[in-house]
Amino acid sequence: WVLMVTAQTPTNIAVIKYWGKRDESLILPINDSISVTLDPSHLCTTTTVAVSPAFSHDRMWLNGKEISLSGGRYQNCLREIRSRASDVEDEKKGIKIAKKDWENLHFHIASYNNFPTAAGLASSAAGFACLVYSLAKLMNVKEDNGQLSAIARQGSGSACRSLYGGFVKWIMGKDYNGSDSIAVQLVDENHWDELVILVAVVSSRQKETSSTSGMRETVETSPLVLHRAKEVVPKRIIEMEEAIKSRDFPAFARLTCSDSNQFHAVCLDTSPPIFYMNDTSHRIISCVEKWNRSEGTPQVAYTFDAGPNAVMIARNRKVAALLLQRLLFHFPPQSDADLNSYIVGDKSI
Ligand code: DP6
């Protein structure tokens, strides 16, 4: 027999960024962060997990290619989920798995991203969130999403925020064992549904410096990063929560753009410096800044993760249509060897 579960998880984009760990193996951050979860039909991971007595070891395929599960991050997630498994019964198939049997059963896992992997579009976030969620369903794990977020966090920090829709805060926590470093939903996907997210895929190539090694180098060498984590982010988190709750777009846009720019400044402050954005990214920033200034009040917020792709958040559908028009005029797809496509969606799960 084979028992299977399939789940779909959208990616999330941080508007107040996580950059830097205080514990590398448990993945505990040096500051809180806030993100918005995208619409699953636009940028998401679909994962099928199967269990069968015929499987002799755990195996995983990512976008059709087998990958190794020997890394600590996969092992931590698998161990944490296995230890919380419950009895499972499928009457139709005549399958009964007792809690203790899970120790000796193995999984085959197939995962697909509908967007470029490791190009700064948070593929690990959707990937680990989906892996943990689908395994938890398969093994009848009773934990709530907050507790599951602490497991997904051990796969990739940003993954903990993908277990909820809407706007989500990852609380850094204080415990040395990470039990209070979890994600909480600030507002659900219906709270601010005028927002439209537009992604400019500036490059679909793999980034040169992974987030993991990039943030390690920043923590080791940047004199700016502690000032950011201790002085700047705590204030921004309070202001951002307020802006989201009151749907204050000008404040939201100001905070989102400033935080993205400071994150990239901290990358430049790293030795050797890390460059995630390219010329097209910089030109997109100038274009949005010029437009926002000419309107007198911000219409669009931009943010860039560890890659050159631009994530833009328009205040409503009308602005999103104008933005797309502008982008297609100034940055037509394929005009630049790297510029691939635009993905338009809304923010909600
Ligand atoms: C720039 O979550 O990919 O996207 O925890 O080492 O797996 P690891 O890093 P990851 O880092 C994401 C960094 C970011 C900002 C953010 O999503 O908050």
TrEMBL record:
Positions of transmembrane segments: none
Keyword presence, Amino-acid biosynthesis: no
Gene Ontology biological-process annotations: isopentenyl diphosphate biosynthetic process, mevalonate pathway; sterol biosynthetic process
Catalytic activity: (R)-5-diphosphomevalonate + ATP = isopentenyl diphosphate + ADP + phosphate + CO2
EC number from the UniProt entry: 4.1.1.33
GO molecular function: ATP binding; diphosphomevalonate decarboxylase activity
Domain Diphosphomevalonate decarboxylase-like N-terminal: 10-183
Subcellular location field: Peroxisome
Alphabetized UniProt keyword annotations: ATP-binding, Isoprene biosynthesis, Lipid biosynthesis, Lipid metabolism, Lyase, Nucleotide-binding, Peroxisome, Steroid biosynthesis, Steroid metabolism, Sterol biosynthesis, Sterol metabolism
Gene Ontology cellular component list: peroxisome
Domain Mvd1 C-terminal: 197-349
Record function comment: Performs the first committed step in the biosynthesis of isoprene-containing compounds such as sterols and terpenoids.
Annotated family: Belongs to the diphosphomevalonate decarboxylase family.
Protein name as it appears in the record: Diphosphomevalonate decarboxylase
Lineage: Eukaryota, Viridiplantae, Streptophyta, Embryophyta, Tracheophyta
